Amino acid sequence: MLNYRAVGTRCAVDMGELAQALDLPEERVACLLAQIGFDMCRADPVHWAKQLVGQANYHRDAPFELAPQVVDCSSLTKWVYHQCGIWLPRQAVQQRRRTAAHPVKLRNLRAGDLVFRTGYGNSWYPDEDISQGVGHVGLATGQDTVIHAIKWDGIKETSLKSFLGKWPRHGATRVLPAERCILTLVCNMVHGIEYSEDVFFLLQANLYEQHSRGRKNKRRAKS
Q1: Residue 145, SS3?
Q2: pTM for this one?
């Protein structure tokens, strides 16, 4: 089961996997989530990123607390996934490593993929060669464009070709798996949701409680 790390009151879940794990129809799972107090919407990082185009300001190493009004490239991508209920680390190089298990070829980019390239002020891990450093990250829109935060220009949507420029190294990773229904759950109630799998355990306990109440009511009816 996909196990996204939640952010605040938001957590992403794969509805299909959740329903399969509970052996219930997706419609029944959606009803249970609503009964517990969750609002649901499709996880759509591009939707959130497009709202910031031409609006937010750029500042290198901007504290994440200033997002979305003031961002740099990696706090932008962190913030849009934050809105989807998916935690990402702060730095571009950390985001690449966090999502490295799902690499994507540039010709196969989909909406929401993270696109990386070298740039000024590259960062790299001690176990990497300096040539593998990351200097910039953006969010693919699925339309051969990338939304990213640029010095002097703020948040812009540019062509993939323009984003990559003449920098020697680049790559991409996928956060949202293709052909899966990833939903963002939002709940202001305290449920202790830290990861996607916590939603499964919460529903499991809720179903067990309903089943137990049903058996007690049947016994009372017989007596």
Answers
A1: strand
A2: 0.91
Q: What is the CA radius of gyration of the chain?
A: 21
Count of beta carbons in the 10 Å neighbourhood of residue 102: 14
> In the chain, where does DSSP find H-type helix?
15-22, 26-36, 45-50, 73-83, 92-98, 160-164, 196-222
Dihedral sign, CA of 189, 194, 199, 201?
Answer: negative
Helix/strand/coil for 138: strand
Sort strands 182-186 and 10-14 into parallel, antiparallel or unpaired.
antiparallel
Distance CA 75, CA 105 (A): 23
CATH class of 45-173: alpha beta
Q: What is the pLDDT along the chain (223 residues), one digit of tens a residue?
A: 789 999 999 999 999 999 999 999 999 999 999 998 999 999 999 999 999 999 999 999 999 999 999 999 999 999 999 999 999 999 999 999 999 999 999 999 999 999 999 988 889 889 888 888 899 999 999 989 999 999 888 999 999 999 999 888 889 999 999 889 999 999 877 678 999 999 999 999 999 887 776 666 666 666 6
Q: Show me where the domains of the chain are located.
A: 10-39+182-222, 45-173
